[in-house]
Phage holin family protein
Amino acid sequence: MRLLLTWLINAAALMALPYLMHSVSVDNVGAALVAALVLGLVNTIIRPLLVVLTLPVTVVSLGLFILVINALLFWLVAHLVGGFHVAGFWSAFLAAILYSVISWALSTLLLNKDGNP
């Protein structure tokens, strides 16, 4: 149940992004659901590998390079999923940050401390 609710929260966060940024567009709820699923899978499978491979750059940049990794993965998902569009890298950079903040805020409001709705 928690996984399903987290997926819906992430899709809602994606649906909110076009209202905050004109360079991001989501055509419909179905595209947001698919994009949230693909983004979750990419962050689960590919992101840890990229973080390990870029560890020296991340250490030198005091962890700020992780924001670049997040932006690149967000941009990748926008290219993979039809109906979800991001204008460019810097749009993806800001959108990834906003997506994280919105998703965190909704999760904090809708999920209890033990992770249950």
Q: What stands out?
A: The chain is about 75% helix and 5% strand. The longest helix spans residues 29-53. The beta strands are 24-26, 84-86.
